[in-house]
Input
Amino acid sequence: MDSTDIKRIQQRGLYLDELQEGAVYAHRPGRTLTETDNVLFTSLTMNNQGLHLDAAWSATQPFGQRLMNSLFTLGTMIGQSVPQMTEGTIIGQLGLNYVRFPHPMFHGDTLYTETEVTEVRLSASRPGQGVAGMKHTGRNQDGVVVAEATRTCLMWTREAHEAHTSAGQE
Output
């Protein structure tokens, strides 16, 4: 087979014009959060909170063990959505509008994320671009909600991104 006969498929997220308000996207596989993840992330971000690093002290606290760093949980939750939602189609994240952690994650818990599209609108000032609102919900392996966040992103429409790319501006 000649290389010109091979169909090339590039993984990407969805364009603004492909998003549907009210649709819920389930991101799989899940991600099991480990002690290594917790200690490394907590140390890299200079967070010396004993609830993440000190097993002996954490054992005396209300949950009886170390907790996963909530910002690691948040980052992982949003990261799980990227391949399906925004890979190569986002221009920039505009904001995180609401974040909560109703239940802790522990070492060995698995995080599963779903994203609901809450808003899709074209930009009045940026032709070919628009704003997408998303609500991310993270659950552990038992289905317990462990994290929620809403965010807004500036996204490409397909036509504008293709024009941008063909003009050599990628």
